Amino acid sequence: MADIQKQQNFEDFNDPHFLNFKTKELSENTLLLGVNGWYDYSFVPFADEKEYRRKKQVYWYDRFIERQGSDSEITTAICDRLKETLQNIPPTKNVILSTHFVPKKAFIIEHGEKYARWNQLNAFLGSKELGAVLDEFPNVKEVVFGHTHHRFFEQELQCTRYHCRPFGYYYEWLLTRSFILSNHLADTFNPLKARTLVKQYGQAFEEYKKYYFLNELEEGMVLLEY
User: Fold this and answer.
1) Residue 52 domain-assigned?
2) Does residue 3 form part of some domain?
3) Chunked mean pLDDT (size 10), the chain, 226 residues
4) How far apart are CA 220 and CA 215, in angstroms?
């Protein structure tokens, strides 16, 4: 996204594979709808917008993306457009919605005291407003998203099933955790330290990955019947 030069291309990028606010008919009764989404700091209680704008400029990758308006303004515009898009879909059509950002607080991890500082990253994970829009449309049957780098069990909220199974980075994988712990390379698994261990035991890790990578792919997949 940082390479996109024109503001309008963020939501209307001209590529047939870019399904933002576009539908694809999957069957007579079901449509796939894509929407990028964005974030508005609403997953952090009592967030100071000015302070989080400052933090974003310090360490968040999106600081390289030039967009018009504040994050909350961008999110509201996206949610308004999503609502309009859903209103134009016949209520008899079931919708599978795919998005990147988190639409529900149920998928936000709040860390305890030891790792509490990581909670500030929740500000950039998604928006409650997006989830509120989806609640208005009972024909939105399935929502698939990621961005959390953490896999959750399927949850049904407001008659909609939510699926969060992001693939993540290699040092976050279940197979990486299993490799480190089963070989007693560490007493506990820490993704931030996993990269160093994997590099140390690179050849052994590659051999281990050959056996378990397919399982890792399956763990990150969402299979839906329509």
Assistant:
1) yes
2) no
3) 56 87 97 96 88 81 80 96 98 98 97 85 96 98 96 96 96 97 96 94 97 96 94
4) 9
